Amino acid sequence: MESLQYLVSEYWPHLAFVLSLAIGGTAATHAAMTKNDVRAAIGWVGVIMMSPLLGPMIYLVAGINRIRQDHISEQRNKSLKDYAPTHEASDVDVAVAAAPQFASLRVLGDRISRFPLRDGNHIRMLLGGDETYPAMIEAIDKAKRSIALQSYIFDNDSEGRKIVDALSRAHERGVQVRVLIDAVGSKYSRPPVIRLLRKRGIPCALFMTNPLGLRMPYANLRSHRKILVIDGCTAFTGGMNIREGFVTAVAGAATAADTHFMVIGPVVLQLISVFAHDWEFTTKETLPYDIWCCDTWEAPMPHVPARCVRSGPDRFIVGTHNMLLGAFAVAQKHIRIQSPYFLPDQSLLGAINTAARRGITVDIVIPGSNNLRLVSYAMTAQLDQVIRSGCRVWLAGGNFNHSKLITIDGAWSYVGSSNLDPRSLRLNFELDMEVYSRDLAGQIEALIDAEIEQSEMVTLESLASIPFRKRLRNRIIWLASPYL
């Protein structure tokens, strides 16, 4: 024992050096072997080797993005056929529903989504909390068998408590209720709403808590999905969290904007499938088909083809990324993009820029007033890359707009929870819908065009006029954009 103490006291610098090399070498090897993006691999190996002790700790927390990939994939595979058919080829004629050039995109969706494109859906666009939350509460109050609610942020504020009250009424009349909130998103309000849900006796859970035994959420793996399914027949999905800041009666002149969608039809089965698997992964409870799903829908006209597209750090990684690459490639006239956080990677930038160089009109609308200042700085640092290729970038006036909307050629729409930033495209669990409908695309186009009318065009000259110190700040923050 004394000899061991002597060795430690005498040679501790050498032992620390060997230990740091062993830990750093192991972490660097893991980064090199698991990162598919060469820039990410080089970056992490550099961070680890420059700081062999601190670097591996940072990599453990922020770099291992798919820490539970195999386990998550296994859980998500269980009983998938019980909720929604998979690996079916779509038989919908998208040339009739949308336009002939989308036939190849439908095939791409078959292979990426693993949900078939289903016809017979009715999709209604809802604007902001003034339309969305009352419609959700009305549907909850009509529920007879089951209510499944999943959200990234569910604030314990005036609007959140209205939703809780509606869920409580349903629970008291015997409706099966399940509520799933992201562990990071639940911390946006104090006290968190999950305490109120538990107090009311409503079954609820937090997504991705305590991995590796840590007493904190694993911040890089978040469920950003927004789902509400009533009796397996009616659903709500899109980009809206549950927050009073989107309601005019509360926020007044500072009301933030957003877009959500009410869905009736076969695609609801895909939405409840996603919820059921996230719930089973989180709680180990399997939701029975006969209570949580329905096989017939009375969808109002018009009927449109649609499907869900999952993405996340599991076997569906880069699902949305690949769908958008395909969508931008088939565009023939006009691409409209509205995103609160526009930070596409080089592959998506290449697809967008190539479309513009082909003569496609590309309009990109971003908030002039952003709720995340660092993200706004990083976006500004990257805008010149699309403007030089001929894209038109619009800085929206008015209040912050959280909408995530894409339309192509007035016939195809992509809506849901995904932002065009590294976190949404690779780290978050996201859920979007592709919709082949000229009617819906026309509504979204009108919404985006109205935003453009109140916007200021960003030009190379306006970017160059930004003081150098601010441009340098923006570029430095842009370097950290994958973790904003």
TrEMBL record:
For biological process, the GO terms are:
cardiolipin biosynthetic process
> What InterPro entries does the annotation carry?
PLD-like_dom, PLipase_D/transphosphatidylase
Q: Which GO terms describe its molecular function?
A: cardiolipin synthase activity
> Which UniProt keyword terms apply here?
Membrane, Transmembrane, Transmembrane helix
Q: Where are the transmembrane segments?
A: 12-33, 40-62
**A GO CC term assigned to this protein in UniProt:** membrane
Q: Gene3D superfamilies annotated for this entry?
A: Endonuclease Chain A (3.30.870.10)
| Residue ranges occupied by any PLD phosphodiesterase domain in the UniProt entry | 219-246, 397-424
- Which PROSITE patterns does this UniProt record tie to the protein? PLD (PS50035)
The reply on keyword Nucleotide-binding is no
Write down the Pfam families for this protein, in alphabetical order: PLDc_2
Give the domain of life: Bacteria
Which protein is depicted?
Cardiolipin synthase
> Which species is the source of this protein?
Pollutimonas thiosulfatoxidans
